[in-house]
Structure formats: C-alpha cells, structure tokens
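Can anyone check this?
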Amino acid sequence: MAILANARILTMDPTLTEIEQGWVQVEGDRIIALGAGDPPAGDVQDMGGDLLMPGMVNPHCHMPMTLFRGLGEDVDDRLFRYILPLERALVTAEVVEVGARLAALELIRGGVTTVADMYYFEDRIGAVLDASGLRGVVGQTLANFAAPDHATPDEGFARLDALADTYKNHPRITASAAPHAPYSTGLPTMTRVAEWAAAHGLPVQMHLAETEPELKWAQDTHGCSTVEVADRAGLLTSALIAAHMMYPTEADMDLFAACGAHVAYNPRSNGKAGRGIAPITALRARGVKVGIATDGPMSGNTLDVFSQLAPATMFQKIAGRSRGMLPCVDVIRMATIEGAATLGLADKTGSVEVGKQADLIRISLADPRLHPIYDIYSMLTYATLPSDVRATMVAGKWLMQDRHVTTLDTAKALADALQIAHRFKAKIVEIDLHS
C-alpha cells in the first residue's frame, strides 16, 4: 500500500474534480482512496507539490515503426519507394520486438500508460508490453496482400486466434483484430473480422476514411463511401476504433454516432501528410468518442501524446475559424478518459477514481515555462513537454521514477534499435541505386 501525498491532483472524473493539495492511496493495482489535505497514516510518498493525473491513452500506434522514424521524410512516394520494400525484405519477429521495445521506452517516458497497437507479429509486441508493465490493446493486422507475418488471410486469422488465446485473461493486455483498411482488406475479409470480433467480444482497429484514393476505391468498387463499406461488413459497432477519419460525409458521421463506433485522431501525422483536418469537432458534437493518438513514429515521429495536444486543438480552431473550437479541457479529456472510452477501457483507466486501476503520471511543475497556471488544462495542452513527466505508474507499479525507466534496459534497447537501423540504411542505398 502506498499513499502519494502533497500533490496537485487532476482527476478527470465526471465532474472534473481538482484537488489543489491532496493524496491518492494505492493498494495493489487499484486506487482505494483519495482526498484533500493531510494524508492518512501509512507508507507516504511525498510528491513535492507535483501534479498527479491519469496516464495518457494513445489509441492508435504502430510501435515497431520507431525503426522507420525520420526515413524519407520529404519523399511523396516514400510508402511505396521505401517503407513497403523495407517491410517485405527486413521486418521479422526480431525486428518487431526491437522496435516495440524502443517504443515502450518512449511511451513510458512520455507519460503514456495505455497504447493500442496494430502491426505484425503482435505476439512479440504483447510480450514487450507485458515486460515493460504498460497497458495495451494489441491488434493483429489482416490484409489481402502478403504481409511480413502471414501470406494469406487464413494464416492471418490463425495468428489472430493465437493472440486472443495468449491474452485471454491478461490483466493489462487485450487482443484485437486489425484489418489494415477497407481497400487493402476487402469486404469478405472485413466481414469475417466482424464475425470474429463479435464471437470473441474483442475490439477491432482499422484505418478508415484516411486517404482520398481510399474514397475513390470505395466509390468505384462498391458505389458508396468507405465508411459505408465498413458498415456493410458489420464493422460499425462499439467495438470499432477507427483511425484517422479524415474524410467522412455527414451521413458517415451520423452513422458512426448511431453505431457507437470510436475514432482515434492523429493530428501530427495527418498534418505531416498534408491530408487536411479531420472533422473532430463535428464527430464529437454527435457524441462520438474520440481519443488523441500519435499514429506510428514513421508518420508522427513522436509517441508521446503531449506532442499531439496543441496541434489537436489548433487544427480544429483553424478549420472552425474560431479560438473557441475544441477547448483545452476537452483536449485533456480526449487524451485521458475519452481516449480510454475509445478502447472500451473507461471502467478501468483514464481517470483518478476509487476502484480504478492506478494508472498515474507525476508531472513536475518546476519549470518556469509552466507558470503562472491560470488554467491547468491550457498548461497541459500548450506548455507541457514529455520531459516534464517525472514518474509513470501502471496498475500500481512505478515503471519510471525520476525519469529512470525501471522495467526495461534503456541502453540495450537503443543499441539493438541502432543495429537494425544499419540494416535499413543498407537497403535504402540499394533501393536508391536501382531506382
């Protein structure tokens, strides 16, 4: 049992309770009490006036793609020129594990306590999350092309079944199906995914309405929007976490709200790709739950949610031509409790409440950059950096204290990643020579 005392507490509970100076009592993996003023007797840990708040929830990520970070940044066709050839030639289970371990370090250091990942060899990613202590949703990618870990849909579903079996009763890790996107998966496989998810009671992650070519594919192939294709497959349910949602129609957004599907908003990734601004304000006005995500580090470069917060609201202000669009308090909701809701985990994490998992971050308020604090939500949205996160706790266990990650070997993780990067560099030279 531990009592985290002398802290400013941001609960993100339904009434947005704030405690100027208080304490949180943790027993095992849960929060059992909290209050203002002096703490009860016990194992008191002095937080030194720092901020305690829920850990950040990242509802869309490709963790192993840390190894692709910064590659071909200004090349318009980098996906087909570099990324796909590199994946086909070099992405193995070992590479996935090395990239995921580097990502886990970055997530912990950036105050992320829950992450939803979709990539290949997700059993290895689950193992990294397990060892690191993070909470996560691991999504086995399914596609109609030969992927690094499966050549056919049947092989992909076999991997998905094994993933579900492995994490069936895990306290922190949930398996999920992850059809890549409508155009790269196809209606028959998407329908099979919907049936599988319903039978197993597990979530589905998918890129949806992300690109203009995707919209054209849906219209040319099915005579409807890409969201309607997903609906025909039976995927528009409360189990769906749809990444991006850049180009939904008004009817698509109404359909999303009616079905209870969720959205992962990737502001930095979308902005870097030059795709425009997702209609997040319109989606949330309809009651759609939206979390703020990083996307993969190839696309958004960073895996901490703090780096997404200012762009998340700025883009909505630009689109709405108003300073009042997507207020800071809503941004922090989306980064915590609303993000947890997109993953179906709001009953476990996303707020500091009695009975919930002790997924907490400690943020130092010492830097002059953060003061004066008139509005804690504004400070977090516009001024806080991931380096301000002093400690990260998941399920009552400190994964980082005083910026030192205790569950992973930082030096080894970085050395392993740089070794893989040398292989990638050699392949890039080969590609450039033959193009």
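Reply from J.R.: I decoded it. The chain has a mean pLDDT of 96.
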